[in-house]
Amino acid sequence: MVQAKTWILKQHFEGFPKDNDFELKQEQLPEPKDGEVLVEAVFLSVDPYMRPFSRVRMQPGDVMIGTQVAKVIQSKNPAVPEGSHVVGRCGWRTHTVSDGTGFIRVLSDWPQDVPLSLALGGIGMPGLTALYGLEEVLAIKPGETLLVNAAAGAVGSVVGQIAKLKGCKVVGSAGSDAKVAYLKELGFDYAFNYKTVPSLEEALKQASPEGYECYFENVGGHFSSVALSQMKQFGRIAVCGGISLYNDKEPQTGPYPHLPMIFKELRMEGFLVGRWEHKNEESLRRLLTWLQEASSSFF
Amino acid sequence: MVQAKTWILKQHFEGFPKDNDFELKQEQLPEPKDGEVLVEAVFLSVDPYMRPFSRVRMQPGDVMIGTQVAKVIQSKNPAVPEGSHVVGRCGWRTHTVSDGTGFIRVLSDWPQDVPLSLALGGIGMPGLTALYGLEEVLAIKPGETLLVNAAAGAVGSVVGQIAKLKGCKVVGSAGSDAKVAYLKELGFDYAFNYKTVPSLEEALKQASPEGYECYFENVGGHFSSVALSQMKQFGRIAVCGGISLYNDKEPQTGPYPHLPMIFKELRMEGFLVGRWEHKNEESLRRLLTWLQEASSSFF
Mean pLDDT of successive 10-residue segments in chain B (299 residues)? Predict the structure, then answer.
């Protein structure tokens, strides 16, 4: 018999999540039945989407949502052999008994020298999000200038690197000097600390005086209002996240975006990574190839 | 020698335009030179775009911008014969001497029984705006539900009628009971007075409990925030105008749109009618055909 440790959402978050919104519980797991497997968490990820999703997809008492890389330690399902690794939406728990629904096998030819944790990062959901946002939503083209915020994050850092591979000029914003230094290591053409620049508008103008064709939006709020005014005519905006808004108790307010949208004829599209799930295997292989071809800092 | 009467913008508008922002001036016009024509205004239009455009495209002292239907009363340009009618960006003036640049000949086969004023309305810029917003931006499809606000306006009323022709369910919002009655005459499936409904959210839900695929945005501001929350997954929004915002001295603020944009994967695009100018002649003929095939109330 296996005891799973699980983190339970005790109550919905109000404002920033607090330790006592969670509770650690032990759960006695049954033996896997025919067709089921027992997996053990190897890596868990904490992603921004959890904050808004928890409100609409969870009830107090549920195990906290989340994806993990897990190792199959007992299998009565030939499709998921013992010793293999899967990525599953198991939530924050050490052990899970499952019939494997929703599990994705880690790429069979995953290279030994690539950490498995990347299956939750650059070669996982965040990498796919970056790729689909750039290719499917923005349809970014060589020579264009891209702005990305939260640029040192799991998604933003891959956004900037793929856009560089595609021949774009990349401007990134992040919230510390260490992150800015990291962006420069990754090859960003321009990076700045939005917390310390005297004026966000001036920083964006200085980074690209002629404006921006594309904007990969991870932050929302005030940053977005300033960025919209710096877009070129027919600029495109992929709205991937709004991390500055997720912890609001009362919705933040700002100027309505209509006037720049109209007079610059901007196109803005929100997206969730699951829209292109049918392309995931091919896309993960592309990301892995880029990783292997690139410098060790990639992803 | 012809005296033109012109309305001059004395000073930029602050808040709502006032009578004393304008000044009537007489202007002595020269004789048309070779290649030039003298035209006389027959109809002037007053359009919402003038309010925001005046700020960015005009200086105090300029003749107020605007399009007119004008009759050619003297011609030294064989392309623009005497007696013909043109639509030109002459501004608010009775007479204009011009080399014809930017003039558009009224369709040569304009029917006798169709008022020429429609060349500034349903068979002119507002009609084209409605058509391009629906076809080019929203790519609206039969069976979809469309929301349009300022629906009794020059653009909105044509939006609703074209969408009905295309087999859509059309919901319109307007600001008086008389306008709502007019929308029902035009064949809108549902129309309401946004000033008197107890709750805008409830009105939108009642009109289409299952939500909206398409939203033709003419108003902006609070209406837009409520409407975004009523969009279906993958809803499309054509941002044509933001009339509730144009007279603001300080920009109105509201909740940032990112969360519904992301979780409903909405696409929002601003547009100006000039983007599809190359299609105008064909498009005006299509609008005219619809007008002639439809009831007399059309446009």
Answer: 95 96 97 97 96 94 97 94 95 96 86 94 96 98 98 98 97 98 97 98 98 98 97 98 95 95 97 96 94 68
* Count of C-beta atoms within a 10 Å radius of residue A166: 16
Q: Is B77 helix (H, G, I), strand (E, B) or coil?
A: coil
CA distance B60 to A52: 49
Q: Nearest Cα to A159, choosing from A138, B104, B50, A151?
A: A151
d(CA A268, CA B265): 10
Residue A192 CB-half CA count within 13 A = 17
The tens digit of pLDDT for each residue in A12-31 reads: 999 999 999 999 999 999 99
Q: d(Cα A30, Cα B126) in Å, to the nearest integer?
A: 68
pLDDT tens across A223-244, in order?
999 999 999 999 999 999 999 9
**CA neighbor of A268 nearest in space, from A219, A232, A228:** A228
Rg (CA), chain B: 21
Using DSSP's 3-state secondary structure scheme, residue A166 falls into coil
**pLDDT score recorded for residue A296:** 47
- Cα dihedral B97, B101, B107, B109, rounded to 10, equals 70
Q: Which residues of A touch B (CB under 8 A)?
A: 52, 56, 217, 220-221, 224, 239-242, 245, 251-272, 275
* pLDDT over threshold 50, residue A200: yes
**A173: which 2 tokens?**
């914003």
Residues of A in contact with B261 (CB under 8 A): 239, 268-270
Whether B265 and A261 lie within 8 Å, measured CB to CB: no
